[in-house]
């Protein structure tokens, strides 16, 4: 049984696992490797192929289904902020300040523009650095939530991307205690 301290981390793990499954990251490639284990470039290629093969209605249904998990993330973000708790560790991430600046552009509908979408490339680049240099971080909650932010943006699910952006920024800047 998880301690009170670990319950947030456990729930965040369950939520991201559900989202990864919903967006096909639990599927295996032709070599039998689950996409969640692969690098961000491969995942983006896979997601783009998946998106192209779905009808507008199928995409809408999937994005709406994701909203159920996003509600919980928003609630958890507020609770963690209230109690001054950080559950996503970005302390060893290169250019965490750049990540925060890029994500900030996705926190409001009016600031999501072509320029903001170009900033996604910087987040992808940082995730590539982690894929290549900090491989153990690739399976941590911080990486998984950043990767899901990219997936939401690829799917055009900017509202849910916004909720994730706010959560990640909160975790980047929150001081424990």
Q: Give the helix tally.
A: 7
Helix content: 55-70%
The N- to C-terminal Cα distance equals: 24 Å
Please state the CA-atom Rg, rounded to the nearest Å: 16 Å
The stretches of 5 or more residues where confidence is low (pLDDT under 50) are none
How large a portion of the residues is in β-strands, by DSSP E?
under 5%
**Overall mean pLDDT score?**
91
How many strands in all?
0
User: What is the chain-wise order of helices and strands?
Assistant: HHHHHHH
Label the structural class.
Answer: mainly alpha
Structure report:
The protein has 177 residues and is mainly alpha-helical. Helix content is 67%, strand content 0%. It contains 7 helices and no strands. It has helices at 4-22, 40-52, 56-83, 96-104, 114-133, 141-154, 158-173. α5 (114-133) packs antiparallel against α6 (141-154). The radius of gyration is 16 Å and the shape is globular. The chain starts with a helix and ends with a helix. The mean pLDDT is 91.
Summarize the structure.
The protein is mainly α and 177 residues long.
Q: Which key features would you list for this structure?
A:
177 residues; mainly alpha; 7 helices; 0% strand; globular
